[in-house]
# Entry
Amino acid sequence: MAVASFCFHAELNDFLPRYKRQVIIPHSFGERASIKDMIEALGVPHTEVDCMEVNANFVNFSYIVQDKDIINVYPISATLDITPSVSVRPKPLSVIRFVLDIHLGKLATSLRLLGFDTLYRNDYDDQELANISFLQSRILLTRDKGLLMRSLVTHGYYVRNTNPQQQIVEVLQRFDLFKVVSPFQRCLRCNGLLRPVAKESVIDELPETVKTQNNEFHRCEDCAQIYWQGTHYERLQQFIEQVLDSKTAD
# Structure
């Protein structure tokens, strides 16, 4: 039986059992296998990996692991003291767009609130999510690491936090998005773009109190939902400020 030694660095340890974190992991194998397959067999999705070093040489995912290999695996967000000669990090997307799994509904709303094109439905199955991510070049955000191991998924991220407000900060930090936040551009219900509309064109659809207290309105291009600045707007604005302040706190 052949044995290769794996060491996972920084936050890649999040995917490992506690007794395998921050230690050298001996991995026995009897069949020919790629380093990508072995990394995922140990529980780490390929989407989280930036580069891999085997016996002091960088390799790509197609490398076939050999007996007595010493393997170091580094995450995308880690700052390395060396520049890898081979990186498996996917090319950055020209436009940042997301698709989220069933567990991240509140995060989806927060991303839309901040202006990011975000698809979410509570009935997407795993194959649909992988297809959408691949075909539409969307970053797949999930709490299911198995979903990120699907070969179709090239751009994906496992959201560590379970608290929705911490989740949005985590995603903004991971993809360096604080500078491109553009609030109140998208419908929170369906992700459609919002456009200004004249009060006269929507007045018959407004509550009586809103008719007298508001003069600026927006309508979703897709689902026709109407938005105005009421008490809900003040709460959302406060939430946005708290999220953006977290960048300053860092």
User: Anything to note?
Assistant: The first strand starts at residue 2 and ends at 8. The two ends are 48 Å apart (CA to CA).
